[in-house]
Design goal:
The chain has 427 residues and is of the alpha/beta class. 36% of the residues lie in helices and 16% in strands. The longest helix has 21 residues. It binds pyridoxal-5'-phosphate (PLP).
C-alpha cells in the first residue's frame, strides 16, 4: 500500500511516536512471543484499523473473534465512558456485591438455553474471569470436581478427554495437553489428567473412556487448529457418550460462540447442549477482558463454594458494564443472523475464487468463520501480501488463511475482501 505523506496530518491515536520507534521500543522492552506483522495500529473503529499515516486495513481477524460487534462499538464504548465518569468503574473486591456483575450474569445466563438439562431445569449460573484460558480452567475444575464428588473417582485420578490440534489458551494446564510442541516444549513439568484423541473420531473417544474419565473438553469448531468443523454427528456422538458414561461435557466456545458461526452459540447448529460452556473474547465486545464459565445452577452450586474459586478482576464493574452492552448489541442488532447471511454470501464468492485459483486447497467454514487452506501450507505468505493491499488476516495452523471479520460487515466490505483475495490467490 502506498504510504501517504506524514506531514500536516491530523493526529491519530494515543501518541505520535513514529512507527520506527514503536518497533524499536517493542523489541527492546517487550517479550518476543508473537511473530508480528509490520504495522502499527493507531485506531480501531468498526471493521477498520488505521495506521499513523491514515492507511486503512479491513480487519479480517477481529482479534480472533473478540471484536464481533466491530471495534469500539459506540454503544459499548459509551457504556464504559458512563461507568468511568459515574465513578462505578473501579475494581471492587468480590467480597461485596455489585449491581454490574449481577445484571451481567442475569443477562448472560438467561440468554443461554438450559445448560446440562440432564441435571434438571434449574436455570444457568455463570462464573466470571478475565482471559479465556482462566474460564477454561474453571471448567476443568468443575469437570474434575464432578468426577470426584458425583462419580466417586479418587481425587487426583480424574481424567478429561481432549482433542488433537486443540487450542484452549497458553497457561500450564492447557498447554500440557496441546498437540503443538512449540506451546509446551521446555515448560514442564506438565499437568497430568488429560487424554488426547483425534478430533472428529467418535470411536477413539469411546475407546479412551475408562473408570477415571470425568469429562470431555472440546471446541465445537476448531479455530486455532485450522478452522475445522467436526464431521456431522460428532457433537451428538459426544453427547450420547457423555450421557451413557455420565461424563461432564464442556464446549469451549471462546472463539466460535456469540454469533461468529451464524448462530448465537455454535452448539445450536447440531442442537446438542453441553453440561458446561466457556465464553470469552466477544463477551465484552472486545473492549476489556471478560470471560465466563456457565453451567446448570445445580452443578455450579455443587462445585464452587467460598474459597474454592476467585479472581480479583473477574466480573469487575468495567468488564460487566461492557458485557451488558455487548450482549444487548449482539441480540439487538441481530449479529448472529447477519453472520449467517453475510457468511453465506462471502463463502460463495470465496468458493468461486478457489475454483479459479491454483493456490487454494479448500475453503471451509460457517457464518463468518471461514478458512482458506492453501496448497503450499504457508498461509502467512498470502497474509503479508493482503496487508499491503489494506486487509489484515493471519494464518490458522500455518496452512489456512483465517477470514473472520467483525459481524457488522456488509456487501461492500465483502467485495473489498474478495477483490484483494482475488489479487493474491488468482494468477
Ligand atoms: C477456543 C479457545 N479457547 C481458549 C482461548 C484462550 O483465550 P485467551 O487468549 O483469552 O486466554 C482461545 C484463544 O484464542 C480460543 O480460541
Amino acid at each position: 500500500m502506498t504510504k501517504t505523506n506524514t506531514i500536516n496530518r491530523s493526529p491519530i491515536g494515543f501518541s505520535q511516536i513514529p512507527d520506527k520507534q514503536v518497533f524499536e521500543y517493542d523489541r527492546t522492552y517487550g517479550a518476543n512471543h508473537y511473530g508480528r506483522l509490520e504495522v502499527v495500529v493507531r485506531k480501531a473503529e468498526g471493521l477498520w484499523l488505521t495506521d499513523v499515516d491514515g492507511n486503512k486495513y479491513l480487519d479480517c481477524l477481529a482479534a480472533y473473534s473478540a471484536a464481533n460487534p466491530g471495534h469500539c462499538h459506540p454503544r459499548i464504548a459509551q457504556a464504559l465512558i458512563d461507568a468511568l465518569q459515574g465513578n462505578f468503574a473501579s475494581v471492587i473486591s468480590n467480597v461485596v456485591y455489585t449491581d454490574t456483575r449481577t445484571l451481567f450474569l442475569k443477562k448472560l445466563t438467561e440468554l443461554i438455553p438450559q445448560i446440562g438439562p440432564r441435571f434438571g431445569d434449574h436455570g444457568n449460573k455463570g462464573l466470571c474471569k478475565n482471559g479465556g484460558v482462566e474460564s477454561v480452567e474453571t471448567a476443568i475444575k468443575m469437570a474434575r470436581y464432578y468426577g470426584w464428588k458425583v462419580k466417586g473417582i479418587p481425587d487426583g485420578k480424574q481424567e478429561l478427554i481432549v482433542f488433537s490440534n486443540n487450542f484452549h489458551g497458553r497457561m500450564i494446564a492447557v498447554v500440557s495437553f496441546s498437540s503443538s510442541k512449540k506451546y509446551k516444549e521446555g515448560f514442564g513439568p506438565l499437568t497430568p489428567g488429560f487424554v488426547s484423541v483425534e478430533y472428529g473420531n467418535i470411536d477413539a473417544v469411546e475407546k479412551a473412556i475408562n473408570k477415571n474419565t470425568c469429562g470431555i473438553l472440546v471446541e465445537p469448531m476448531q479455530g486455532e487448529g485450522g478452522m475445522y468443523q467436526p464431521p456431522k454427528g460428532f457433537l451428538k456422538g459426544l453427547r450420547d457418550l457423555s450421557d451413557k458414561n455420565d461424563l461432564f461435557l464442556v464446549f469451549d466456545e471462546i472463539q466460535v460462540g456469540l454469533g461468529r458461526t451464524g448462530k448465537m452459540f455454535c452448539f445450536e447448529h447440531e442442537d446438542v447442549v453441553p453440561d458446561g460452556l466457556v465464553l470469552g473474547k466477544a463477551l465484552s465486545g472486545g473492549l476489556v477482558p471478560l470471560s465466563a464459565f456457565v453451567t446448570n445452577s445445580k452443578m455450579m452450586d455443587l462445585a464452587f463454594h467460598p474459597g474454592s474459586d476467585g479472581s480479583t478482576f473477574g466480573g469487575y464493574p468495567l468488564a460487566c458494564v461492557a458485557g451488558v452492552a455487548a450482549l444487548d448489541v449482539l441480540t439487538g442488532e441481530g449479529l448472529a443472523g447477519r453472520s449467517a447471511k453475510m457468511g453465506a454470501i462471502l463463502k460463495k464468492k470465496l468458493d468461486d475464487i478457489a475454483s479459479r485459483s491454483s493456490h487454494v486447497k479448500e475453503v471451509r467454514g460457517k457464518g463468518l468463520f471461514i478458512g482458506i487452506e492453501v496448497k503450499s501450507g504457508d498461509a502467512m505468505v498470502y497474509c503479508r501480501k493482503l496487508l499491503d493491499l489494506g486487509l489484515l488476516a493471519n494464518d490458522s495452523y500455518g496452512h489456512t488463511i483465517r477470514i473472520s471479520p467483525p459481524l457488522v460487515l456488509d456487501e461492500n466490505d465483502i467485495n473489498y475482501i474478495c477483490e484483494r483475495l482475488e489479487k493474491v490467490l488468482v494468477d
